[in-house]
From TrEMBL:
It holds the Pfam family SBP_bac_5. This is Nickel ABC transporter substrate-binding protein. It comes from Planococcus dechangensis. The gene is nikA. The lineage of its organism: Bacteria, Bacillati, Bacillota, Bacilli, Bacillales. Residues 83-448 form the Solute-binding protein family domain. Residues 1-24 form the signal peptide. Keywords: Signal. PANTHER family: NICKEL-BINDING PERIPLASMIC PROTEIN, PERIPLASMIC BINDING COMPONENT OF ABC TRANSPORTER. SUPFAM superfamilies: Periplasmic binding protein-like II. Transmembrane segments: none annotated.
Length: 539
C-alpha cells in the first residue's frame, strides 16, 4: 500500500474554481491528483468531505465510518426490517437469564494478511475496547460487558453483568466492536493510541492513500463471502459541497452519496436535469438541536421553550431541504421501535416564545434589539459542522428568526473534530446533534442521555429529574418485560420533549446521485455501512 503524507493547497484553488462557470475552469483534473484516476472500467470514483483517517476500528473521529465498514466486519449484521443476521459469527445462543451469549465463528475466514479469524483474536479486540471503556460508554453493551471467554478455537462466550436486551444490535455497529487482525495491534495491545496497519476481514483493502486527497480501495481477492462486483473504489476528498457537484458534472465522480454531502438545491438541480439518477433513503435519523442546560442562560426551562417555539420549523425545513426532509415533531421518527407514544408537538408561536422570555426576566427595552436581564444581553452561541451545508443554512436561519424574539445568536462553523470535542467538554450553548439511526436506536439514543462522556448526558445534567431519568433509562435497557419497556420509553421521550433539551428539527435522509453507467444501487439498512458491495457498472 502506498501512503503519501504530504498536503497541498489544491482545494483552495478548487473553491475558487467552483465559483466560476464550468467553461471557465481548467480542463485539468480539478478535484485531486491524477494518481487517483483509475483506468479500471470496473471501478467507481466518489467524493467525501474529509480525510478517511487512520482506520482504527476501536476509536472514533477522524476515521470515517463509511471506510471503516469497508475493511472491518461485525459478528452479526443488521438487515432490512431490523433483522439481526449471522456474519463473522455463524450462530449464537443466549442463556435464559440473558447474561451469556455463546457465539460460533465461521470456519475459513481470513484477515487480509492471511491470518485466521479465531476466538482469541475476537477476545483481544474486546479486551482492547474494555481497556478504554470510558470512551465507549455511549454503546450500552460495553457498559454491561464483563468479559469474553474463549471456549475453543471458533467458539467464545460474551458474559454480561446484567441483562441487556439490545446486545446483538450493538454488535452490528461499525465501531468500536468490529474485528481487527492480530497484525494490526501495537506491541502493547493498546489500540486507543493507534494501530500498526488496517487489517480486517472485509471485502475491501486499502491499496493507496494520500492524506486529505484520496484513498483507493481494491477488492479483497481472498474474501470469505460474496465478493463485490466492483474491483476498485476511489474516494476523493473534496471538502466543498459545490465543488463536488462540479466534479460530478464533469464526469470526474461517478457517485455522490451520504448525508449533507450536497445542498438540497444542488440535489434538486441534478435531479431536474434528467441526466443522472437520484434517490432519497427512508428517514435515517432526526436532526435536532442539543441545548446545554448547564449554560447559565439555558438553565431556565422558559428560555429553552422560547427557543423551541420561536422559529418556523416547517418553513425552515421546506426552505432549506426543499421538502426533501420532513419536519420533526419528536426526537424519534415513527419508524423506530418505541416511538409510537403520543408526543405533544411544540408549535411555532412567536407570541408564546416572547411570553416565556418575559417570564424568565429577559426584557426587551423599547427600541432595543436584544433582550437583557441584570444588565446582560441574551446572547447565545450555536456551533455547527462547517462542511455541512444544511447545518450552515439552518444556523443562519435560526440566527435571523431568533433575533425577532430578542435573542442574539452567534454562529460558529467548526471542523467536525473540534465540534465534537467542544460538545464533550460542555463548551457550547447550542449544537446540532442527531440520534444514531439503525441499528443503534432507540436504545443507544436513550443510553447516551444517561451515560457521561459524550456531552449529551452532561448537557442534561441541570434537569431537576435527571436522576430519575437516568434510572428509567437503565431500567428500560435491562427490562425483559416488553410492556414495561414500552412504558419506560414513553416516559423518557416525553420528559426530553417537555424539558426542551432536544429541539427536533427534521427527519434526515441520505441522498445519492450517480452517473447512468451505474446499473444498481441500494441504500444500506445500517446507516453507517458503505454501499459499494451492491453496486454494478456498465462501463
Amino acid at each position: 500500500m502506498k501512503i503519501h503524507n504530504s498536503k497541498t493547497n489544491l482545494f483552495l484553488a478548487l473553491a475558487a474554481c467552483a465559483a466560476l462557470v464550468l467553461s471557465a475552469c481548467s480542463n485539468d483534473d480539478a478535484t485531486g491528483s491524477a494518481e487517483a484516476q483509475s483506468d479500471n472500467p470496473n471501478s467507481i470514483t466518489m467524493s467525501w468531505p474529509r480525510d478517511i483517517g487512520p482506520m482504527n476500528p476501536h476509536v472514533y473521529n477522524p476515521s470515517q465510518l463509511i471506510t471503516q465498514s469497508m475493511i472491518y466486519e461485525p459478528l452479526v449484521s443488521y438487515e432490512e426490517g431490523g433483522e439481526i443476521e449471522p456474519h463473522l459469527a455463524e450462530s449464537w445462543t443466549v442463556s435464559e437469564d440473558g447474561l451469556e451469549y455463546t457465539f460460533k465463528l465461521r470456519e475459513g475466514v481470513q484477515f487480509t494478511d492471511g491470518s485466521s479469524l479465531t476466538s482469541e483474536v475476537v477476545k483481544k479486540n474486546f479486551d482492547a475496547v474494555l481497556a478504554n471503556k470510558n470512551s465507549h460508554s455511549w454503546l450500552g453493551v460495553i457498559n454491561v460487558l464483563d468479559k469474553i471467554e474463549v471456549v475453543d478455537e471458533l467458539t467464545f462466550k460474551m458474559v454480561l453483568t446484567q441483562a441487556y436486551y439490545p446486545a446483538l444490535q450493538d454488535l452490528a455497529v461499525v465501531r468500536p466492536v468490529r474485528i481487527l487482525g492480530e497484525a494490526g495491534f501495537p506491541e502493547d495491545g493498546d489500540t486507543s493510541k493507534g494501530i500498526t496497519e488496517p487489517v480486517g476481514t472485509g471485502p475491501w483493502v486499502l491499496d493507496e492513500y494520500k492524506t486529505d486527497e484520496y484513498a483507493v480501495f481494491k477488492r479483497n481477492p481472498d474474501y470469505w463471502g460474496e465478493s463485490p462486483e466492483l474491483e476498485e473504489v476511489t474516494i476523493k476528498i473534496i471538502p466543498d459541497a459545490e465543488t463536488r457537484v462540479l466534479a460530478f458534472e464533469k464526469g470526474e465522480l461517478d457517485l455522490i452519496y451520504g448525508e449533507g454531502v450536497v445542498s438540497m438545491d444542488s440535489f434538486n438541480y441534478l435531479k431536474e436535469t434528467g441526466e443522472y439518477t437520484t434517490d432519497l433513503s427512508d428517514p435515517v435519523a432526526t436532526r435536532t438541536m442539543l441545548v446545554n442546560s448547564t449554560s447559565e442562560k439555558l438553565s431556565d426551562l422558559n428560555v429553552r421553550l422560547a427557543l423551541h417555539h420561536g422559529f418556523n420549523k416547517q418553513a425552515m425545513v421546506e426552505g432549506i431541504t426543499l421538502g426533501l426532509e420532513e419536519k420533526a415533531d419528536s426526537i424519534l421518527s415513527s419508524n423506530f421501535p418505541y416511538a409510537e407514544e403520543d408526543i405533544e408537538a411544540v408549535e411555532y408561536d412567536v407570541e408564546k416564545a416572547a411570553s416565556y422570555l418575559d417570564e424568565a426576566g429577559w426584557k426587551l427595552e423599547s427600541g432595543g434589539a436584544v433582550r437583557e436581564k441584570d444588565g446582560q444581553p441574551l446572547e447565545l452561541e450555536l456551533i455547527y459542522d462547517k462542511t455541512d451545508p444544511i447545518q450552515k443554512a439552518m444556523a443562519e436561519t435560526l440566527q435571523a428568526e431568533w433575533s425577532a424574539i430578542g435573542v442574539k445568536l452567534n454562529i460558529a462553523g467548526l471542523e467536525l473534530t473540534e465540534q465534537i470535542e467542544r460538545r464533550k467538554a460542555g463548551n457550547f450553548d447550542l449544537d446540532f446533534w442527531s440520534n444514531y439511526g439503525a441499528p443503534y436506536d432507540p436504545h443507544s439514543m436513550i443510553n447516551v442521555v444517561a451515560e457521561d462522556g459524550w456531552g449529551v448526558s452532561e448537557a442534561h445534567s441541570n434537569l431537576p429529574m435527571k436522576t430519575e431519568l437516568d434510572e428509567q433509562v437503565h431500567e428500560a435497557l435491562a427490562s425483559t418485560d416488553e410492556t414495561k419497556r414500552q412504558e419506560l420509553y414513553g416516559s423518557i421521550l416525553n420528559t426530553l420533549q417537555e424539558q426542551a433539551v432536544f429541539i427536533p428539527i427534521s427527519y434526515m435522509k441520505k441522498t445519492v446521485a450517480y452517473q447512468n453507467d451505474i446499473e444498481s444501487f441500494e441504500f444500506p439498512a445500517n446507516r453507517d455501512e458503505h454501499p459499494f458491495n451492491d453496486i454494478s457498472v456498465s462501463k
